[in-house]
Amino acid sequence: MKKEIFINEKRPHESGIKHVSGRAYYTDDIPEPLETLYGAIGWSKKAHAIIKKINLDGVVKSAGVIAVVTGKDIVGRNDVGPVYDGDPIFPKKAEYYGQPLFAVAAKTTELARKAVLKAKISYKTLKPIITIQNALKKKSFVLKEKIIKKGEALKAIENSVNRLKGNFTTGSQEHFALEGQTAFVIPEEDNDFKVFSSTQHPSETQQIIAKMLNQKSNTITVETRRIGGGFGGKETQSFIFAAICTLLAKKTKHPVKLRMDRDDDIIITGKRHDFYSEYEVGFDELGVIKGLKLKLASRCGISPDLSEAINERALLHIDNAYYLENVLVENYLCKT
């Protein structure tokens, strides 16, 4: 029997050679059947507005366009929220700049991207809430705040020899993966669909699409070739692209590829949360913390998405390697 020892060995990534040589197959490299169509998404040019009218006549008549889909084409759940509702595929009211409003399938990617620019959309502009501080002032939240209280933080701070008070921010991050958001959907017999998605969560992608189509989950098969970088940015944010691509494939009865332009990818998807924190701390001559009061607020965008888990992690890891005997932490999930 061969004995393998892995300690102190340098072992290459199983696909490492393919990655660096360019031989690795990603979603966009999958061979396309004949009559494959290509998708593009038309998105809101307003951060907060009521959509009064969408005129897609110019889009429909644009060269190479085969089909257009809107919210009216969705027979099931018009939402891709993984835990809570709040992330409509095509909304009736625009809640962020870049929110998808419709999509097209055309003979080429270039023709599809040109077509979506011909939409004429009239809005009733509303005042957006953009900053965390403004959301706190307006009490605009995606979920109820959470509070952790241990001991008597305010009394401990007041009785401390030294005290500090202030605020700070931590910035957001963009998920910039090697492969952007991509989906490729092939209609199959009996109204089944084979979905290739660059996603970190293929099983949830299956559930989201099945609910959108009002079909059983076993009619949707999802395969992830490679992610090409995810970092959490394809855990849930890939859902809307796979859903829209499937909707286009269903309407056209043709294979459809939806490969997002990098700018559109960044505009349509959310970011890692930025935080605003206000603190008051009391400590002794040795620097030992006697009491801490902290307001921890994050910018969650328009919906809960995964914000509850993200904020719980920030909230429950707040003590890091310290033992805090007296602490009061308030956590606010701001809707912007």
TrEMBL record:
GO molecular function terms listed in the Swiss-Prot or TrEMBL record: iron ion binding; oxidoreductase activity
A matching Pfam family: Ald_Xan_dh_C
Keywords: Molybdenum, Oxidoreductase
Keyword check for NAD: no
Domain Aldehyde oxidase/xanthine dehydrogenase a/b hammerhead: residue ranges: 21-127
Keyword Oxidoreductase: yes
Cited InterPro entries: Ald_Oxase/Xan_DH_a/b, Ald_Oxase/Xan_DH_a/b_sf, Ald_Oxase/xanthine_DH-like, AldOxase/xan_DH_MoCoBD1, AldOxase/xan_DH_Mopterin-bd_sf
Gene3D superfamilies recorded: Aldehyde oxidase/xanthine dehydrogenase, a/b hammerhead, Aldehyde oxidase/xanthine dehydrogenase, molybdopterin binding domain
Protein name, as recorded: Aldehyde oxidase/xanthine dehydrogenase a/b hammerhead domain-containing protein
Lineage: unclassified sequences, metagenomes, ecological metagenomes
